């Protein structure tokens, strides 16, 4: 599956730095497709959701998804390419919804709140996304070496974080700081902290807020 993205220009306000005028990636709508192709795609995604819920992510292959969906194995591979892309497709709806809230939702996640409040609200929203879909996010991010950093979602999250950090500290290396801050939300790290180190959500959220404050002060 090829994940399509379009761009939206961030409106400039008097308090925004010139860097804030760059384009912010936004999850795009899929390109128009034939009705039968659209039906097959939906059947495959619904079959994958059922199987993952019944058997767990580790036990489901592209072949079993094809059988459950009633399509040929080649159809699944042509539509999604590999298991990692199929997992990403299952996360698309949640990622698009979060993007919409970032661009047009109410503050503090959406426009209108102080920059640092927007940054901490965004990190909290990413933590919520992991809390709700942690196993799926983990499987998607670890489907291949470096998979996390090749998704359109990561590019958008990095761009948004970078813009907010640059607004707070125009003289800092906002791009690098954004990567470092998002590293704290790596699915493998979060899984380890929650399941092995017994760190609860509130402690995680507090740590993220403190880290964001240090990088944006």
Keywords:
2 strands; two-stranded antiparallel ribbon; about 220 residues; disordered N terminus; mainly alpha
Could you give a quick summary of the protein structure above?
This protein is mainly alpha-helical. It contains nine helices and two strands, in the order ββααααααααα.
Compile the SSE list and pairings.
Elements: E1 5-9, E2 23-27, H1 35-55, H2 62-69, H3 73-80, H4 83-104, H5 115-141, H6 152-168, H7 174-183, H8 187-195, H9 201-216
Helix pairs in contact: 1-2, 2-3, 4-5, 5-6, 5-8, 5-9, 6-7
Percent in strands: under 5%
Distance between the termini: 40 Å
The largest beta-sheet arranges its strands as: 1-2
- The count of DSSP E runs of length 2 or more, i.e. the number of strands, is 2
- Taking all Cα atoms into account, the compactness measure Rg is 19 Å
Shape: elongated
With helices defined by DSSP (H or I, 4 residues minimum), what is the helix count?
A: 9
Order of helices and strands: EEHHHHHHHHH
Quaternary form: single chain
Major sheet summary line: 2 strands, antiparallel
């Amino acid at each position: 599956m090829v994940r399509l993205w379009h761009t939206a220009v961030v409106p400039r306000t008097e308090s925004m730095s010139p860097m804030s005028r760059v384009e912010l990636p936004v999850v795009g709508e899929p390109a128009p497709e034939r009705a039968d192709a659209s039906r097959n795609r939906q059947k495959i995604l619904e079959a994958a959701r059922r199987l993952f819920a019944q058997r767990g992510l580790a036990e489901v292959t592209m072949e079993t998804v094809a059988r459950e969906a009633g399509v040929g194995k080649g159809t699944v591979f042509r539509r999604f390419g590999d298991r990692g892309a199929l997992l990403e497709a299952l996360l698309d709806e949640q990622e698009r919804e979060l993007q919409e809230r970032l661009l047009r939702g109410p503050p503090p996640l959406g426009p209108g709140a102080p920059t640092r409040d927007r940054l901490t609200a965004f990190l909290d929203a990413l933590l919520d996304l992991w809390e709700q879909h942690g196993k799926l996010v983990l499987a998607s991010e670890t489907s291949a070496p470096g998979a996390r950093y090749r998704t359109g979602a990561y590019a958008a999250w990095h761009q948004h974080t970078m813009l907010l950090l640059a607004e707070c500290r125009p003289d800092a290396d906002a791009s690098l700081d954004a990567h470092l801050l998002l590293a704290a939300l790596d699915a493998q790290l979060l899984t380890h902290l929650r399941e092995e180190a017994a760190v609860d959500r509130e402690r995680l959220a507090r740590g993220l807020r403190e880290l964001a404050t240090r990088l944006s002060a």
